[in-house]
Amino acid sequence: MLASGRGSNLQALLDAITAGALDARVVGVFSDRAGAPALARARDAGIPALALSPRDHPSRDAFDIALFDAVEATAPDLIICAGYMRLLGDAVVAPRSARMVNIHPSLLPDFKGLHTHRQALAAGATRHGASVHFVTADLDGGPVIAQAEVPVFAGDDEATLSARVLEREHPLLVETVRLLAQGRIALGDGGVSFDGRVLHAPLQLAANNRFA
Ligand code: GRF
Question: Using CA positions, which residue lies closest to atom 2 of ligand 1?
């Protein structure tokens, strides 16, 4: 997993694994910020955690290469970006697109980039949510696997809306990782497939945390 901050999505996966609800293993957590709470969460769980400082590398590409050398040394089947805040170059992304996913706090393709809750409120959106998508060179533009939707209420501010979305991000990530770990989701030339069939729209996480 790649994370720059709080690590609540990492924690959701760890909790599901500990509870025996998700058959997976987190083999390493990597960050561009040594102080990221996500790293402490990993260490608390006995998982190797490594921070690399961009300042110790001469270029973005050199940093990316060092980062992914460390990631690949753990031999992951899947690379999950959860709150990893640095842009990744195409040279490291392109060869890994089919096994690298990101969780983004909006209903993509709406509200890419930063401050998604502020963007949603400014646009007067009545529905908002989160998406898990394959990572491509196109920032927050890779094929979407699954989404969880929440309503936007009159009177919401960024704090209330982001809390409502985050509460759904956690089961969304757990349930999507479950499908990926089971080999039921794949990225092919035709887009995302689920149980061998191309998805024409992202899977939607229902209130009971099952996909509709
Ligand atoms: C989440 O909202 C995620 O969607 C976004 O960054 C935030 C990370 O939260 N990409 P956390 O570090 O997992 O708590």
Answer: 105
To the question of pTM greater than 0.90 for the whole model, the response is yes
DSSP letter string, the chain? -B-SS--HHHHHHHHHHHTTSS------EEES-TT-HHHHHHHHTT--EEE--GGGSSSHHHHHHHHHHHHHTT--S-EEEES--S---HHHHGGGGGGEEEEESS-TTSS-SS-HHHHHHHTT-SEEEEEEEE--SSTT-SPEEEEEEEE--TT--HHHHHHHHHHHHHHHHHHHHHHHHTT-EEEETTEEEETTEE-SS-EEB-TTS-B-
Is the distance from the beta carbon of residue 4 to the nearest atom of ligand 1 less than 6 Å? Answer: no
Whether residue 137 is predicted with pLDDT greater than 90 in this model: the reply is: no
Q: What pLDDT was estimated at residue 212?
A: 86
Residue of 11, 13, 103 best suited for mutating to test ligand 1, as the one with most atoms within 8 Å of CB? 103
> Is the predicted pLDDT of residue 109 greater than 90, yes or no?
yes
